[in-house]
Amino acid sequence: MSVRRAIAQQAVEQRFDQLDRNGDGKITRDELPAQAFFQRLDLDADGVITKPEALEAVRKGALKGMRAPTGTATEGSSIAAAQSAKPSPAEPPVREGPKPVRPGDHGIGRRIGDVTFKDVAGESRSLAAIADSQIVVFAMTSTSCPISRKYLPRLEELVAANGDGIAWILVNPVASDKLPDMKAAAGRFGTRATYVHDPEGRLAAAVGAVSTTDAVVLGRDRTIAYHGAIDDQYGFGYAIDAPRRRYLADALAAIRAGDVPAVAATEAPGCVLDRPVADAATADVTYHGRISRIVERHCAECHRDGGAGPFPLDTYDDLVAHAPMVREVIDRGTMPPWFAAATPADPETGRVHTPWANDRSLAEAEKRDLLRWLAGGRPAGDPSDAPVAHQYPEGWHIGTPDAVFEFADPVVVKATGVMPYKTVIVETHLPEDRWVRAIEVQPGDRDVVHHALIHLAGAEEQADDPRDAAAEERGGFWGEYVPGQNTLVYPDGFAKKLPKGARLKFQMHYTPNGTATTDRTRVGVIYAKEPPRHEVRVAGIVNARIAIPPGAADHREAASLRLPFDATIMGFLPHLHVRGKACRYELIRADGTRTTLLDIPRYDFNWQLLYRLHEPLPLQAGETLVFTAWYDNSAGNPANPDPTKTVRWGPQTFDEMHLGYVEYYVPGAVPGEVQPRRPRRRQ
Fold this sequence. Notes:
Strand content: 25-35%
CATH class of the largest domain: Alpha Beta
Largest sheet: 9 strands, mixed
Number of helices: 14
CATH superfamily of the largest domain: Glutaredoxin
Structural class: alpha+beta
Number of domains: 5
Oligomer: single chain
Helix content: 10-25%
C-alpha cells in the first residue's frame, strides 16, 4: 500500500468513527443526513454503511466530483477535513492568563526551611522569626516588570484587607531595579509589609517562585499552601477591567479557615525568573519534614481515625507498619484513586497543567520522594518540622445543614457474600421548592457502604417498583457518596433544585465485611439564600441495549447525547460495573471536529469518581457528547461473575451498565431536560 493511500484510508476510518455516533460499526441515514453522499457510499443499498463499505466506495472514486457539505468529506485525504480545518497553532498563544497547575508540581505541601534576608532599609530578617505560627505571604514584585507594576495597587488592597495574622513579604528578585524606586514602592505599604531586594534570587528560589507576579503562601507550619497568580486581571498580551478570579484572596480566606484552597496552584504570567533547580537528593527526606505532608495531602482524608479508609496512615508508626502495601498501590497506580489519563508535563517547566480541579494524582517529585523513603531507612526526622495537624470537621463537612433527610428504618447488611443493590425512598415533606447549594451524604456504617446515588423519585414510585432504570439514569443523580467524595458544594449563584414534596431515592451498594450490621444513611443540605443565577443539573448518557458477548476481553459500546439547548459542562462521572475496563467522553462540534474530554484507560468500579473541570466547558445546542466504554467479559477478568454469559444492562453488580453522567449548568430555568440520543437497535 502506498503512503498516500494509507493516509487516505486512515482519514476515511477517522471520519467514519466520527459519524458512527453510537459506535455500532454502521452509519445510518440519521448519522449521515446528506442523502447524495449516503447513496454513493451505501454500495449494497441496504440502508446502512459499514466501514469496509465506505473504504471500498472511496477507493472506487464514488465521491469524486462531489462538493462536501459542512462536516462531510469527498476524498480520502479530505474525509477528515473537519478535523484538519482548524489546526492547533504550533507556537504559544500571544494572549495567556494564569493556568491551573497540578499542586504537587508547584511545591504545594513542601516545607520551607529557615532563610535570612535584608529588607530595603538594611534590617536583617529571618523566616523563622517572622513565621512564628502565622501565615506568611511571599509576593514577588518588580519596579521594572510592566505586569508586576500593574499589580502593585492590588497588593496594597490585599495587604490592607488581610493584615491581621498574616505577614506580607514583598520580594523583588530583579537585580537591576533601582533602590529609590523600590523604596518608593515599599513606602506605599508602610509597616504593613516587608519589602526585600533579592538581587541574586536566593529568597525567590527558596520559595520556588518563577515569575515577578508569583505569590507563595505558607501556612502556620511553613508549608506551602498556595502558589500562583494574584488574580487574572493582567497577563501576557491582555488586560481586563476587573478580575474574574481572585486566586490569592480566595486562597487566603480558605487557609485562614483551616481549609485547602479550591485552586491551590496556578502559573502567574509575569517577567520570568531563573527556575529553581529541583533538589533531586532524597537522602535528607524525612517523615516530619516531607513525607507527612505528602500523606496529609493525598491519603489522610480517608486513611485516618474515623475516615473511610481501612486503616489510618496519619502517624509515622501507621505509615511504617503499612509501608509495603503503600508501595504496592502507588507502584500499581491505584492510590491515590485517580484514573484520568495523565496530562503530559510541560517539557520546559516539568509542570502539569491539569484540567481537573480535584486532581488527586501524585506529582512525579512526590511519588519519587515517597517511594524512596518507603524503600529506604524511613527516617523520622525532627518532630519540630512536623506540619500542624489538619483538623477534620466533626459531623458535617459542609457545615450545619439546614435540613437532614435519613432512612426511616435501618437496612440490615449481612456478614458475608454479595448483596443486591438496595433502594430506599426518603420523604422530604418540603412545603415549597428549595434551591440547594451544598449536599453531603453520610453513610450510617462507612465500613459496608460501597457507594450511594440519590435520584429524585416520582410521586407514586415505590422502592421496589419495576420501573425503567435506564430512563431514570438519563435524568442523572441528585447526590452521591463514594469513599473520599461525599459532598457537592457549589459556588455562589449556582444551586440544584429540590422540588416541593420531593422524594429522595437512595440507590445503595453494600459490601459485607465479615460482620453483620445495619445502616441508616442520611443526606444533609444547605439552602441557597436566593434563587441562583445558574441551575446545576446532571444528565446520563445511556446505552441500555448493551450486549457483551461471552469471553469478550475488549468489547466496545457507545452512546451519545445531542444537546437541545446551550449548556456549560462542569464535570463527568462514569459508571460501569465490574466488567468495565476503560471509558472515554468525547465532544463532536457542529463542524464535525471530535475532541476527547476525559479519557480513563483503566476504570476501577471501586471508585465512582466525579472528575470536575477547572474551567467549565460551554457547549452549544446541536453539539454531541459521546460516551464510549470497553468491557472485559473474559475469564481473565478476576472480578467477572460469569464469563460464559452474554451480559446486558441491569442494576446489579453481576449485570452491566453503560452510563456516563455529565454535570452541567444552565442560566436560570430552561424548559425540558437534556435527553440522550437512544442507540439504534442492533441489526
